[in-house]
Write a structure and sequence with these properties.
Blueprint (H helix, E strand, L loop, with lengths): L11 H13 L7 H4 L3 H4 L1 E4 L2 E4 L7 H13 L2 H9 L25 H19 L12 E5 L6 H9 L8 E5 L4 H9 L6 E6 L6 H15 L7 H4 E5 L2 H7 L6 E3 L16 H7 L1 H20 L6 H14 L5 E6 L7 H13 L17 E3 L11 H6 L6 E6 L7 H20 L19 E6 L4 H21 L8 H18 L9 H11 L1
Parallel strand pairs: 3-4, 3-5, 5-6, 6-7, 8-9, 8-10, 10-11
Antiparallel strand pairs: 1-2, 2-11
Helix pairs in contact: 1-4, 4-14, 6-12, 7-12, 7-15, 12-13, 13-18, 14-18, 15-18
The structure holds 6-O-phosphono-alpha-D-glucopyranose (G6P).
Subcellular location: Cytoplasm
Pfam family, one: PGI
InterPro entries: G6P_Isomerase, G6P_Isomerase_C, Phosphoglucose_isomerase_CS, SIS_dom_sf, SIS_PGI_1, SIS_PGI_2
């Protein structure tokens, strides 16, 4: 059974939404809070430690109803079921999409269970010092070598859960930039460093090149037989990892039904496990599992990922907003946006529909942002008074982790103040100075979460995973392939031969030829 393929613009609800949009697009809706009783509570969803207030949006009860109808008409419910049932919904690659199976503690697949067990035993030995380096010293540093999904997820989570961390220092090498590799090596001692080579395919150029550079560096101080104590791999491609010189017992398997950008829950999360301990890693998974159950079973009008997806479609396809910002008021979530950029933009950056036809409406949004309050002093001017509409998600936590209540109160005062200022602007105020006039009506979703725990982080990540999937279904695209990335990789092989052979003529394009010539000078 394949995913339903329905052009959203042909649905009845889309047509009604178009008319409805015309009616409300120019309304200054700031005063909905005085006009509608219980506006805030009517547009709020409370679930476990999460409180989503989406009342500061340019939508009414009618908008919500029509958007919910749209979700029904494109058969979102059926699509969700197909994903969780393991149907091959990644049709262009003929694969199921089951990152949710990695955290399904009710019916865990045996291969998932055994990999988790292997991760637990290994990480415990590294943390407690039982696992020794080639000179008998315990491990102090871990280097995760991987790129894209084999880097962004672990890097983000290790940083986000720093509070729960132990003595191990985790480093990440993704870029093939040799300067970065050299800078990282400066602080490392081969006797006490563990390298985790993470590549689902074990064919990614950057990762294989970096892994070889690091192995060569290691072998300047150690003997070939010492490699097994210092190099482990995470991959679907066991044979390629073995060919690199890592023995099977040191390879942590993963499955092809786990997409790279959704793989932090798999053995790709080994560096997370080592950084915060297996128990915290399992809680991260538990949090995601809770969100999975919510996504699967909650009515759409109470369903966090579905609500966020529909609001985003409303701005993207009707208001023609091209981008959306995500601003987390927690320094621990410094790397959330780069992580979400891959998850969201690699998934929904598509212009062919599920029937293989060119699409004539907008799909994937451009996602950007940073942490608050830093963002306020950088680009918030554009949110407040620029000409573009930029719907923004605000993510904040009621409790801080280290105390320091004074700072936390100020942080959160800014968090609340911004959504209010963006919404209200100077509406209804007698401002004589046009430069100091703020239109307001700038939409925001506020996600207030009790505390940054591993479990809540797991739920938060899964929330965005499901949001992007729901959007992909509405847009009638395949969210789980990434053919666009492949072309660049192929061309890079040609440019590398042009560079290595010192022959810019190997390239067809005149501009590229000239640039390579200049580079070779
Ligand atoms: O894990 P690997 O096979 O090395 O792949 C790493 C990355 O490669 C490409 O960039 C893909 O587009 C990503 O989705 C993937 O995460």
């Amino acid at each position: 059974m394949s995913l339903p393929s329905i052009n959203p613009t042909n649905t009845e609800s889309w047509k009604l939404l178009l008319n409805h949009y015309k009616e409300i697009k120019n309304l200054a809706v700031q005063d909905v809070f005085t006009k509608e009783s219980n506006r805030a509570l009517n547009f709020t969803v409370e679930w476990q430690d999460f409180y989503l207030d989406y009342s500061k949006n340019r939508l009414t009860g009618e908008t919500r109803k029509l958007l919910l109808d749209l979700a029904e008409e494109v058969k979102l419910k059926e699509a969700i079921e197909q994903q969780f049932e393991g149907k091959k919904i990644n049709e262009t690659e003929g694969r199921a999409v089951l990152h949710t199976a990695l955290r399904d503690f009710d019916t865990m697949k045996p291969e998932v269970k055994s990999t988790l067990h292997k991760m637990k035993l290994f990480s415990e030995e590294v943390i407690d010092g039982t696992h020794k380096g080639f000179t008998g010293k315990p491990i102090t540093d871990i280097v995760n070598i991987g790129i894209g999904g084999s880097h962004l997820g672990p890097d983000m989570v290790v940083d986000a859960l720093k509070f729960y961390g132990n003595h191990l220092k985790i480093h990440f090498i993704a870029n093939v930039d040799g300067d970065h590799v050299s800078e990282t090596l400066k602080s490392l001692n081969p006797e006490t460093t563990l390298f985790i080579v993470v590549s689902k395919s074990f064919t990614t150029q950057e990762t294989l090149v970096n892994a070889k550079v690091l192995k060569d560096w290691f072998l300047t101080k150690a003997e070939p037989q010492d490699v097994q104590k210092h190099f482990v791999a995470v991959s679907v491609n066991i044979a390629a990892a073995e060919a690199f010189g890592i023995s099977e017992k040191n390879i942590f398997p993963m499955q092809d039904w786990v997409g790279g950008r959704f793989s932090l829950w798999s053995s790709v999360g080994l560096s997370i496990c080592c950084a915060v301990g297996y128990q915290n890693f399992e809680e991260l998974l538990q949090g995601a599992f809770e969100m999975d159950k919510h996504f699967k079973s909650a009515e759409f009008d109470q369903n966090l990922p579905v609500i966020l997806a529909l609001i985003s479609v409303w701005y993207n396809n009707f208001f023609e907003a091209e981008t959306e910002a995500i601003v987390a008021y927690s320094q621990y979530l410094n790397k959330l946006v780069p992580y979400l950029q891959q998850a969201i933009m690699e998934s929904n950056g598509k212009s062919t529909d599920r029937n293989g036809n060119k699409i004539n409406y907008q799909t994937g949004t451009i996602v950007w942002g940073n942490v608050g309050t830093n963002s306020q002093h950088a680009y918030f001017q554009l949110l407040h008074q620029g000409t573009k509409l930029i719907p923004t998600d605000f993510i904040g936590f009621s409790e801080s982790l280290n105390g320091n209540i004074g700072n936390h109160n100020i942080l959160m005062a800014n968090f609340f103040a911004q959504t209010e200022a963006l919404w209200a602007g100077t509406y209804n105020q007698d401002v004589q100075n046009s430069f100091k006039t703020f239109d307001g009506c700038k939409p925001t979703n506020t996600l207030l979460i009790k505390k940054l725990t591993p479990k809540n982080l797991g739920s938060l990540i899964a929330l965005y995973e499901h949001k992007l999937f729901a959007q992909g279904i509405i847009w009638n695209i395949f969210s789980y392939d990434q053919w666009g990335v492949e072309l660049g990789k192929t061309v890079a092989k040609d440019t590398l031969s042009a560079i290595e052979n010192k022959d810019s003529g190997l390239m067809e394009n005149e501009s590229t030829q000239n640039l390579i010539k200049k580079f070779l000078e």
